[in-house]
Write a structure and sequence with these properties.
Elements (H helix, E strand, L loop, with lengths): L2 H5 L5 E2 L2 E2 L1 H4 L4 H12 L6 H14 L12 H16 L4 H9 L2 E2 L8 E2 L4 H15 L2
Antiparallel strand pairs: 1-2, 3-4
Protein name: DUF3310 domain-containing protein
InterPro entries: SaV-like (IPR021739)
Organism: Bifidobacterium choerinum
C-alpha cells in the first residue's frame, strides 16, 4: 500500500479539504454520518455509502448532535472547511446537508453545535441525497 493511500486517500479529499478536518471535531455518530456523505461520490458506490450515513443518522441522539470543545480559531477553520465542501457539492440536497452541519458558537456554551441539530432534518436531507443517487 502506498503512502498516499495511508496518509491522504483521494476519497477523503474534496476541494482542498480532507474529511478529518471536519469530523475530528464531531461526536462519533455525527462524524461518521458526515464521513459517508463526504466520500459517497469518491469511493465507488455512492448508494452504499449513503445508506451507511442514514444508519448513523437514525442512531443519533441529542448528545451526538454536539461538537467537541474548540477554540474560536478552530471553529472558523471547521466552518471554512464545511463551506468549501458545500461549494463543490453538485446537488441542492447535498449543499443543504453541509449547511446543516456547519458549526456555530452559541453565546451560552463553550461547546459549539451544528447549525441544525435535528435528527429528522438530517434524515430528510439524506433521503434527498439518496434519491439523487439511487441506482
Amino acid at each position: 500500500m502506498n503512502d498516499d493511500m495511508l496518509d491522504s486517500p483521494a476519497h477523503y479529499e474534496r476541494n482542498g479539504v480532507e474529511c478529518w478536518q471536519i469530523t475530528r471535531h464531531m461526536t462519533y455518530m455525527l462524524g461518521n454520518m458526515c464521513k459517508y456523505v463526504f466520500r459517497h461520490r469518491l469511493k465507488g458506490n455512492p448508494y452504499v455509502d449513503l445508506q451507511k450515513a442514514l444508519r448513523y443518522a437514525r442512531q443519533l441522539s441529542a448528545v451526538d448532535m454536539g461538537l467537541l470543545p474548540m477554540t474560536d480559531n478552530t471553529l472558523v477553520l471547521v466552518q471554512h472547511a464545511c463551506l468549501r465542501v458545500r461549494d463543490v457539492s453538485p446537488t441542492d440536497a447535498e449543499r443543504r446537508f453541509w449547511e446543516m452541519v456547519l458549526p456555530v458558537r452559541t453565546p451560552d456554551s463553550h461547546r459549539p453545535r451544528v447549525s441544525d441539530a435535528n435528527q429528522e432534518a438530517y434524515l430528510v436531507a439524506l433521503d434527498g441525497i439518496v434519491g439523487e443517487e439511487r441506482p
